[in-house]
Amino acid sequence: MASFQKHICAYLALMLLAFGLLPFANTYAHAELGAEVSNTAFVTFDQAGAELTIATNEAVFTIEAARTPSTIDFFRFVSGAPDGIITQINGSHFSPSGELTGPFEDIGPPVSLGGMVLDISGDVPLAPADRFIAGEAIFVRVTDAGQNGDPETIETVAVTVSTGEGDTLTLLLFESGPDTGEFFAYFPSTREETPPNNPVLSTPGSANLTAVYVDAFDETEVSIDTALVDPFGRIFDSATGDLLDGVRVTIVDAVTGLPAVVYGADGRSAFPSTILSGSIVTDSSGVQYELEPGEFLFPLLLPGTYQLVIEPPDNFQFPSAFGPEDFETLANAPFEIIDASFGGTFVLDQTGPLNFDVPLDGVGDLVVIKDASTPTTAAGDFVGYTVRIENASNVAVPLRIQDILPRGFRYREGTARVDGEPITDPDIAPDGRTLLFNAGPLRPGESTSLTYLTLATAGVVLGEAVNEAMAVNGAGAPISNRAEAAVFVREDLLRSRLTIVGRVAEDACRPEQEWSRDLADGTGVANVRLYLETGDYVVTDEDGLYHFENVLPGTHVVQVDTETLPEGYEPVVCEENTRYAGSAISKFVDATGGVIWRANFYLRRTGEATATEEVEVFDDATEYLDYDQAWLDQQTGEVRWAYPDTDRTPSSRSVNIGILHGGYDRVRLGLNGAPVPPLNFAGSESSADGSAEISRWRGVDILSGKNTFTATVLSPDGEVKATLTKDIWFVSEVETATLVDDQSILAADGRSYPSIAVRVTDAAGRPVHAGREIEVDVAAPYTLKNTEAFEGEAPVTAELANLTSVAVGPDGIAHVELAPTLQTGRLRLRVRLDNGTQQEI
User: Cα(first)–Cα(last) distance of the chain, in Å?
Assistant: First the structure.
């Protein structure tokens, strides 16, 4: 019975408590969250006329917060922010032990940059933030409605804030007011190292802040927020990663185009909109911001659209020509690269500082030289190019080489090399001809070589094909000289034509010997003329060699012109060969296209041979040989231009230079405003008495048109003694053609080949360079020398029936040869000009 009464009493007590009929409910309605509450109930009743009181067992409860979602956020002290809030701050405590349960101590009033104490006695203006400056006060807010256990009391929650460097701070946040469910605290920050669990959080440069809130009554309810400390932008060298000080940086409102409004870290003081990277900047309150090397900072900007205006120092340019992937391996990486890093606009969606870096490209004194692997080519052939680049400046330069291929040439994938090491294929423009190589950085004083292969496709144009290369900046503007390399595109004649080669030699056999006769090399005989049955002829060189090229397949006869044999020689047969047809001066050739056929002829002496007359031909490529030691020993120390002859047009796109000067003088040579590369300097030579010297340069590349050379002669003590300026024209445009009467041979003897000498020049009368080919034709009844050989090969118009190409020789003179004729009279020759018209002579 007693046990039954006990259980009944406990049950009644619980029922009474649940229905609020006992004083417990009112006594603990506003108890502190987390408090443990206990209660014992008493029941009094009559039993058999006696009053009995029974006490229930003790009931124990813990007061918990309601299960509600939470958030945690970082804020900074700032006035007037459109995304800001106004709140009350009721304190901020920290745990010296680092435990979430405390005990906690008061941090004191919030202190920002420069020791400024922030006023939090009334309404406090805050703005959301995810970037802070080390030294400013950082505010934290937790929103959790369930933690508002007593609507009449300011309650608290605890959070932890830590950095990636390992410092941690445990904070006690106070509700902003009774029944708000929003809790705030703050703490100071510093770049300096602080002791563990110190109220000042150590936030070294680029530290990441992490704030964590865990509901004390529900460990599954976790909120996290992150922020970045010291989000300075950095200005750096795109080639090396070196940080650049003294760069002028301006922040501009992209909407108005005016300098932006910037605030200091206190959110109220004015901050300059233009600063120098790596400097010390002071805001209107006197707070100083000491920027690290290369850093730029604008502490607080209101949400909006902005743009950086960069004024690069000498030898640098903005924006950079490279992309984010090009900076990954540089010193001081990683870098934060966005569109704004290259001058683009950017949107700041909350009040705060900037956080991105800006690369600048070096602009050095670059010299570019270009060479082709072959002087001639044909469709289907590969042509290799070498681009040599030298950085003569004192800054590293990112190499962007723009290369424009001749028409019909195409880059061969995977062939690009820098100093023999493979690099990424170039960007190729839609035209297929413009290539852009990113060749990496080139440091001061260094040089490098870029090589690649091209294919001459079926679309190549016959004639001179010029390739251009230069270094360019990010905007595509040249930052070096323009280098050219030319190849001559010829028809691939070996596919459909044959070549006849041979030699005319003496003493190659003993004619009295029985067959077969022993053959020896013998001695070549120069200036012997040989004919084809077509009327074409050639003359043997100094080694007795000759060749006919561009010959149609079929049967031909090669014959020696005996009238051109030197005195004292006669032809003999040295080979037992039916193709001689019994004659020592002629030979049959019966061959298909695509072969090379040999036809040799032999001579023997019948008397005393006479020397042949040599014709002197000017050759600018060997002109420097005339200025040898014997010549130099006869000179004085007078400063003058030695060679080349600037009145002549060079035969190629490179020239040799010689400057005469006094002994021990030095010469600086420039071309078109840029120094001639040291690679071209061939050294100096002194006269026997040391009073005169000649400084030489070899293979200096020149451009089409005018090339201005400037030679500055310095005395041994560095003073300028003299300056020489010479213009060398490389002329390739055929704009006029005139007859050179005294060099023409006009004989109608039916045997000789008439030759018309024509000087071709540009509009100013400057001769076209040697090797340039021109197209000519001649009016009936005369025909050009090679016309018969091509007759019937392809249909042509009557107007151009005699059209052929002729190579220009020295001094712009081309010798146009005609087929032998007995017809005397007036001759009409037409020369095709580069503007598409013909000039008649």
Answer: 148
Bigger pLDDT: 157 or 353?
Answer: 157
Give the integer Cα–Cα distance in Å for 502 and 585: 13
Three-state secondary structure call for residue 583: coil
Residues 6+ apart with CB under 8 A from 220: none
Burial 712-729 (b: 16+ CB within 10 A, else e): bbeeeeeeebbebeeebb
Bridge partners of 488, per DSSP, are 376, 464
Average pLDDT over residues 285-294: 85
HSE-up (13 A, CA, CB side) for residue 578: 1
Separation of alpha carbons 615 and 626, rounded Å: 17
Residue with tokens 């870098």: 335
Supply φ then ψ for residue 630, to 5 degrees: -60, -40
Tell me if residue 360 falls in helix, strand or coil: strand
Annotate 288-315 with b (16+ C-beta within 10 A) or e (fewer): ebebeebbbbbbbbbebebbbebebeeb
What's the rounded Cα separation, in Å, for the pair 95 and 185? Answer: 13
pLDDT in tens, 703-728: 888 999 999 999 988 899 999 999 99
Cα separation, 418 vs 404, in Å, equals 18
Please state, in angstroms and as integers, the Cα–Cα distance from residue 381 to each residue in 374, 408, 412, 435, 788, following that order.
10, 12, 12, 20, 29
Given a cut of 70, is residue 797 above it in pLDDT? no
Give me the phi and psi of 739, to 5 degrees please: -75, 135
Output the CA torsion sign for 766, 771, 772, 775.
positive
Q: Greater confidence, 59 or 124?
A: 124
| Ramachandran assignment for 764, one of left (phi > 0), alpha (psi -120 to 50 degrees), beta (any other) | alpha
- Strand 124-128 and strand 85-87: the pairing is antiparallel
Nearest C-alpha neighbor of 150 from the set 216, 74, 66 = 66
Give 314's contacts (C-beta < 8 A, 6+ positions apart): none
Among 339, 351, 331, smallest CA distance to 308 is for 339
Q: Is 832's pLDDT higher than 50? A: yes
Q: Is the full-model pTM beyond 0.70?
A: no
Name which of 102-111, 695-704, 745-754 the model is least confident about.
745-754
The SS3 call for residue 741 is helix
Question: CA dihedral defined by 683, 685, 691, 692, rounded to 10 degrees?
Answer: -80
Residue 509: the pLDDT is 84
Sheet holding 674-675, edge to edge: 674-675, 666-671, 705-714, 720-730
Query: Which H or E element spans position 699?
Result: strand 692-701
What proportions of the chain, in percent to the nearest 5, are helix, strand and coil? 10, 45, 50
CA nearest to 343, candidates 295, 291, 306: 306
User: How do beta strands 304-311 and 248-253 pair?
Assistant: antiparallel
Radius of gyration of the chain (CA): 47
pLDDT higher for 203 or 252? Answer: 252
DSSP secondary structure string for all residues of 610-667: -PPPPPP---GGGGGGGS-HHHHTT--S--EEEES-TTSPPSSSEEEEEEEEETT-EE
Give yes or no for a contact between 574 and 511, defined as CB atoms under 8 angstroms apart.
yes
Write the CA distances from 649 to 166, 460, 657, integer angstroms. Answer: 75, 27, 14
Render the burial of 750-759: b for 16+ CB within 10 Å, e for the rest: eeebbebbbb
On whether the CB atoms of residues 571 and 561 are closer than 8 A, the answer is no
Smallest Cα–Cα separation from 609: which of 573, 565, 560, 574? 565
pLDDT value of position 33: 59
Answer yes or no: are the C-beta atoms of 488 and 375 closer than 8 Å. yes
pLDDT greater than 70 at residue 792: no
